[in-house]
Amino acid sequence: MTSDITLLLHQLSAGDAAARDRLYTALYPELKRLARSHLAGHAPMTLEPAALIHEVWLKSAGQEAALHRGQFFAHASKVMRSVIVDHLRERHADKRGGGAQVTLSTTALEQLVPPDVLKLDDVLQTLARADERAHRVVEMRFFGGLEMEEIAQALDVSLPTVKRDWRKARAFLFDALT
C-alpha cells in the first residue's frame, strides 16, 4: 500500500490526471483513520471525519504531486489539526459563550495529561519558532501517526536525529503543558 501511494503520487507529478482519483481512493481509508484519531476524545464536535478529509483534499490540490507518502500524511495531519483548532476557536469564542474545555488524547504522548487543544496549538507554535524540525517531527509522529523511519525519510535526516528531536520535543511539550 505504501509503495502504491508513492507510485500514484509520482504518476500525478508526471501529469497523469487520472492518478488523482486513484490516489483519493487509495488514501481515503488511511485519511479516515487519521481524521478519527484527530477527533477522538473531543467534546461533542460538529466536525465529522469526512469533513476533515475533504478539507485536506481541497487544501492539498496541486501540492500532493511534490510529496511522497510520509510527507503527504504529515501535511494531511497538519491541515486536520489546523481545521480542528480553527473550528474550536470559532465555536468557543467569548462572544458565543465559549470557555468549554476540549481535550486531545493519543497514545503517542501517554506521559502528558490530555491538554486543551488551543493551549497545545499555542505550545506547538512556540516549539516551531524554537526548533522547526522538532516541531515537524511532532506533527508527523503525534498527529500524522508516522513511524520514526518514515519521518527520517520525509525530513531527509538520520533515524538517530529524528529520535533525538522527538525526545527534545516531548520534553519541551511536557514542560510547557504541565
From TrEMBL:
<keyword id="KW-0805">Transcription regulation</keyword>
<dbReference type="InterPro" id="IPR013325">
    <property type="entry name" value="RNA_pol_sigma_r2"/>
</dbReference>
<dbReference type="InterPro" id="IPR011517">
    <property type="entry name" value="RNA_pol_sigma70_ECF-like"/>
</dbReference>
<comment type="similarity">
    <text>Belongs to the sigma-70 factor family. ECF subfamily.</text>
</comment>
<dbReference type="InterPro" id="IPR013324">
    <property type="entry name" value="RNA_pol_sigma_r3/r4-like"/>
</dbReference>
<feature type="domain" description="RNA polymerase sigma-70 ECF-like HTH">
    <location>
        <begin position="3"/>
        <end position="177"/>
    </location>
</feature>
<dbReference type="InterPro" id="IPR039425">
    <property type="entry name" value="RNA_pol_sigma-70-like"/>
</dbReference>
<keyword id="KW-0731">Sigma factor</keyword>
<protein>
    <submittedName>
        <fullName>ECF-type sigma factor</fullName>
    </submittedName>
</protein>
<keyword id="KW-0804">Transcription</keyword>
<dbReference type="InterPro" id="IPR014284">
    <property type="entry name" value="RNA_pol_sigma-70_dom"/>
</dbReference>
<dbReference type="InterPro" id="IPR036388">
    <property type="entry name" value="WH-like_DNA-bd_sf"/>
</dbReference>
<dbReference type="Pfam" id="PF07638">
    <property type="entry name" value="Sigma70_ECF"/>
</dbReference>
<dbReference type="InterPro" id="IPR053812">
    <property type="entry name" value="HTH_Sigma70_ECF-like"/>
</dbReference>
